[in-house]
Amino acid sequence: MRVPGVPFVQGRNSFTDADGKHFGIAIHNTSNANLASAEDEADFATRRTDGISAHFYCDKNSIVQSLDTNARAGHAGSTEGNQNSIAVEITGQNSFSRQRWLDSVAWDKLASTLAFVIRNDPDYAGFKVRRATVAEMRDNPKIKAFYGHDDMRRAFGGTTHTDPGPNFPWDHLIAVVKAAVDEQEDDMFSDNDRNALTSANFRAMGVYADLDEITYRTVNGASRTEPNKAKVARLALERKVAELAARPQLDIEELAEAIAKRINGH
Ligand SMILES: [Zn+2]
């Protein structure tokens, strides 16, 4: 999958993925002393010959996709890591402080990009927006969660890399991705759809009209149950109509006479 709205610059890749399936999201930092931008990293990825590759590069203000999410990147040092996760390279270093991390990443773009993958790639159905423990990763290398390069090192071996580093703000990453997943679920219906659903016309749709709650489902199996706003709106409308109908009827002629009297001062 290529994420819509994210620039795609096809990176060089020496791996072939057996089944195109990935389940985890691996977080790295580029450990580049000059802090090359995401664009420069993606550009370098088109010609590097060391076998290293990643699906996404993210810096302070942008994100670039380098490989389709079904491609196998060389990023983990282990078969388990490379085969089961997509790689996100964030420009930064292990020595960054928490505050520097918070200030150095396009968190909104990173979050919306990863939320799109989580919500739309069927392999990520059931993905939990949290960081896996090393024990869980050893137990199940296909665990559907976030983890770092260091977590892969400890779970699967094959590397000495310890990125993204001790001060990487995992809590912040998890929070912004969770929020983006929720937001994209809210966007499942356009405003027009919602207006149509909440209009009294919805009554004509029969079977849904009397449900108190409606469960919306996405293709990847995520679901959200909400009160049936159409039913709430219909009941309110019916109450209003009944209220109006119950009012004493005005006699228009009587009213006209009363107005005329007042105007004429009688
Ligand atoms: Zn790494």
UniProtKB/TrEMBL annotation:
It catalyses: Hydrolyzes the link between N-acetylmuramoyl residues and L-amino acid residues in certain cell-wall glycopeptides. Gene3D superfamilies: Peptidoglycan recognition protein-like. It comes from the Bacteria. GO terms for biological process: cell wall organization; peptidoglycan catabolic process; peptidoglycan turnover. SUPFAM superfamilies: N-acetylmuramoyl-L-alanine amidase-like. CDD domains: PGRP. It is an enzyme of class 3 (hydrolase). Keywords: Cell wall biogenesis/degradation, Hydrolase. SMART domains: Ami_2. Its EC number is 3.5.1.28. Residues 10-165 form the N-acetylmuramoyl-L-alanine amidase domain. GO terms for molecular function: N-acetylmuramoyl-L-alanine amidase activity. It holds the Pfam family Amidase_2. This is N-acetylmuramoyl-L-alanine amidase. It comes from Asanoa ferruginea. The lineage of its organism: Bacteria, Bacillati, Actinomycetota, Actinomycetes, Micromonosporales.
